[in-house]
Amino acid sequence: MKTILTKPVASLRSRRVKPLVLFTITFHGFIAVLAPFLPLASTDAQDSGSLLQGPSLEHWLGTDSLGRDVFSRLLHGGRPSLLIAVAATLISAVAGIVIGSLSALAGGWLDDALSRLLDFLLALPTLILLLLISSFFGQDPFILSLALGLMYLAPIARVTRSTTQTLLARDFVRVARMQGAGNLAILRGEVLPNVGWVVFTEVTMQFTWILLAFSSLSFLGLGASPPTPEWGLMIAESRSYMTLNPILVISPILMLASLVLAIQALADHE
Amino acid sequence: MKNLARRIFFALATFFALAVFSFLGVDALPGDGCTALLGRFGTAQKVAECRKTNELDKPVLVRMGDWSLDLIKGDLGYSIKRDLPVADVIIPRLRNTAVMAVVAALIAFPAAVLVGVRLGRFPNSRLGRLTNQFSVIAMTLPEFVTATVLWLVLSIWIPIFPGVNVVPSNATIRELMPNVWLPALTLATVIFAHTMRTMRASVMSVKEMPFVESARLRGTKERVTVRRNIVPAAMPPVLSVIAIDGSWLLTGTFVTEAVFNYQGLGRLAIDAISDRDTALILPIILFGLAVYLVASLLADALVKIFDPRQVGAV
Amino acid sequence: MAKRRRTSSVILAFFALVIAVSACGRTSAVSGVLRVGNDAGFGGAETMDPYDGNRTWPTINMVFDRLIGVDKDFSPIPELALSWSSNSDLTEWSIILREGVKFHDGSDFDAEDVVYSINRMIDPEFDSPVRAVLGVITSATAIAPYEVKLNLSVGEADLPLLLADYRALMTPVGSQETIGKNPIGTGPFKMQTFDPAGTTVLLANADYFFGQPKLERIEIITFADSQSAGQALAGDQVDLLLAIDGKSSSMFGDKSKFTLQQIPTGDWNAIDFRVDQKPFDDARVRKALRIAADRQAIVDTVLGAGAGVVSCDTPVWSADPYRWEGSCPKDTEGAKALLAEAGFKDGIDIEIFTSDVEVHMVELVTVYKDQVKDAGIRVSIKIADASGFWDDVWMKEPAFVDSWGQRPATQVLNEVYRSTATWNPTGQVDSDLDAMLDDARSTLDRDERTKKYAKIQERLFENSAIFLPYHKTLTRAMSSKVQGIEPIVIDAVRWEKISVK
Asked: Please, what CATH class does the domain formed by A19-31+60-268 belong to?
């Protein structure tokens, strides 16, 4: 069956994706899904006798300022941002692809209106609006996903629009049209299975931007709320203790950086 | 010309829509300037009095109307919490952010263009690959990570720069300067990577073009070819990246300023949101939008001016 | 190759320039100047009017004086007043003033200024926060140029301590309009530039009645957060931080560079339960919630080891002469039994609201949650937005985290626990307690009064709706160049005696 993912999957197979990249992504996916089931210390359990300790057998990466196990918090720390990033990316991908292809297929005034809408979304000062939304809705994950999804859909819609326009000019689409296929049929049968790699790349890029935006929000205290383990929040909470126990800050930085870099490497054309 | 008029019209429409949207949005936030000012021990009566003196008890649409009229007259309003005209609060911070932006731009853009040309010509050299990979990392990492790393290395381990800003928002530029470097370097890292990669890609595609080839065949020296043919032809996309990144330097500095306690517009925006200082938040949002709109118009214009093939295209 | 070398040398030269410029721009300490790091506090809304809710502290205490100060042992000592006495039922007080004191503008300080200042503090229209302290004063009268009479609504044995409140400062007649930005006081330092969001500069008052200050100048530098303030001290950008995070004090462990002082204070955090909301209307539930946690573990985890003193739900702090030392160990079984008795055999689910509006408020509930889980108390933490917290959450939600500054026993009990108090956060009405409070404060004999206050605190541990696990011990950090700051509460610090080597 031909689906929208056929092309991307095929080209993922044919491209030589570096093993390191694949390994990193698998590793992150694995711990994000399995962290609650692994035999880890509780993320909330506090050891009042050992705050800000260095690595030990009991606490592999030491403890934070409330005596919590850093290793366990680190493995759980990607889940909130990944969850929100996945939800938001799904929203932006679906909405972006629909708007983009609709825009290209319909043309005329609708195309014009949708393009202006995309211009508007692109022009929004994202972070300050997110800060406003987050302080208004009390850091609600659902609202944040929706807001992030809307703010990051414009590039996906634009890429879909231009790819679709190119496709529409191609012969096989013309043939289908001559055979009497309607807009919807063309969209489903010819366009969506073929927008493929380019759009997939754009979606992946937006995924990393969304992930980073949410982490930045957490860092500023308006993303994940304590005591949730989340990398951005962990960095913010631990900055005062940087000189006492650098692992507290360095370890979430490494986790966040490796995840984002691996996903970008996956999407990167070169 | 018609195209330009159209774009300006849409820019103004966007500006207007966002202004209305932000005003209503900020107004809907829990708490207002008076509860923020009076804080914990503000009795209902005191809050009501404060709302009356500051005209916060009027309907939201009336206040929005008053505010827009004042804005058109050039009056940005009054910050209740800070007990100062908004312009007096914003202008010094805007200057600080601008100083930081200029320093970051001066560090990043020339270096990015030089390195980009070099790497575009020799993309497969080992140093080239390394630099390229470094740029991908620098571009991808969130600013709070870059900032934290720079702070750790250049202020704690090797104490070259002051780690946090201690001078007030209205300090002289001389007093401000030592505090500018770390935040500016943070921003510069991001835009350097971005610009450098665009320059590199652009040079790589231009150097294969026939006119470059023919210059070479004419026996022009390589250095001259680079300066006369390759760089000018490769510049347009880079210029538009510079315009957009330049606008980001003025409007995307929230996190960086927060990390370094730098008294700029981004820090002020975060404070203003938590203070419910509507009068202060709105001009900052609109400023951000205006800078972006101008930069994107400028970016398109630059592409058209420098690239004859683009004339007539949207 | 030539090209590459040129590129890299341009970059190198640039960085060399950067370093050179930044190095010469770094400020160094000037002798005779004390640079104090201060929290942003009210985000630019600060005023020098000591009676205003947004008064900027500790600057007001450098510019103005009180009638009565406090000594190291928290007993009242003369400041602008030389002596004081009362009638037998403690409702009428006479205060003799120091003569020859001048305000910074050269005018004389006398009884009229005292009457003016006290009238502003107790003015119901202006409704100063100081009114919560000195509201018992019904009138102030000048009976001689240097003698003032105060009439009280009830007998108050500890009026001198209440007058030692850090905000009960003396301001000149008619200063209401100008005092906020152009303060004229009698204090050791005069205002030079007032910039609460930036750097405030004070100059020594050579004519100060306690003697000329040793410092030439004090600069008060505002930081947005305590972390940047800590970095500034580490980098010799400030000399003194009045309070640092107890857990990061080892950053300043180098004794040749820094002096650390640990000072027990009366500042406390609490979790308040509204008695008019289920399930907190049940005294058994409230008691269970209060005995289920290990208070020492809370101190160690929230504040850091040694950075707090355990309190058994009494708001009276460790150095206060009326302090009651109870015993309140963690009692999981007792808590379970109480909950079962109240109908919660399978434990209880509660929501507690908090916010990062002040330090330790989020940490307290995070640690509490972990502490009480084995008693079957399941806490879910709600983080409210900082700017809406005092307005929308505090005193309104069923359970919330609270934070109070140091107050003498009589003040804190009457301000927070009395049934009719404006800021009684739990809504608890206990007329017996109110009667006990009236009785205690108007008891002339000191020992008897102390016993009565102890009884009151015991009663609070039995049925109060406020879980009050600790009073904070603050860590003051300063450069070792700073001399003359004794390890005592800030209210007792004499700013004129401080010097910088």
From this structure: mainly alpha
